[in-house]
Amino acid sequence: MTNLLGTTGAADTSSDSFLSNRKLTRGIGYGLSALVVLFLLMDGVMKLMAMDIVMQTMGELGWPNSQMLARGLGLLLFVCVGLYCAPRTSVLGAVLLTGYLGGAIATHVRVGNPLFSHDLFGVYLGLFVWGGLYLREPRLRALFPLRAAI
Fold it and tell me: How far, in whole angstroms, is CA 117 from its chain's centroid?
């Protein structure tokens, strides 16, 4: 009898495993990536428009209340997201987004914001960035396999 993943044994590492189902794996990967991209694009638009909430929050986080800074961060975010969306530069985009999110994490830690809702939010987004890329990019899965080759 087979389980939900179509495998027969608990430790089955054959080609019937979850990650070898290319269509399903890529679909989930693109779904995760789409969620994080849509969120980051919304954030970038808000920064480019230098909305009042962005300016207020930047001041609360200890950053200068500068529309140029907000717009610069929005533009930087758009560049990183664009690189992440393009298949040839997706890994570079993920690396740059990781750095961008690391800066956000450092800012929240510096001002003493709550751990799970603020400090780790960049980590959550980073997991979606890399998780989506891992599932949609077979070369990345080959570089970092979840299990040891036998």
Answer: 17
Contact 53, 64 (CB under 8 A): no
- Written as tens digits, the pLDDT of the chain (150 aa) is 444 444 444 444 444 466 678 889 899 999 999 999 999 999 999 999 999 999 999 999 999 999 999 999 999 999 999 999 999 999 999 999 999 999 999 998 988 888 887 888 999 999 999 999 999 998 898 898 887 666
Phi, then psi, of 63 in degrees rounded to 5: -90, 155
In whole angstroms, what is the distance from residue 20 CA to residue 1 CA?
20
Q: Model's pTM, two decimal places?
A: 0.81
Which residue's entry shows tokens 């510096």? 110
Q: Is 79 helix (H, G, I), strand (E, B) or coil?
A: helix
Q: What residue spans of the chain are helical by DSSP H?
A: 22-48, 52-60, 67-85, 90-111, 121-136, 138-143
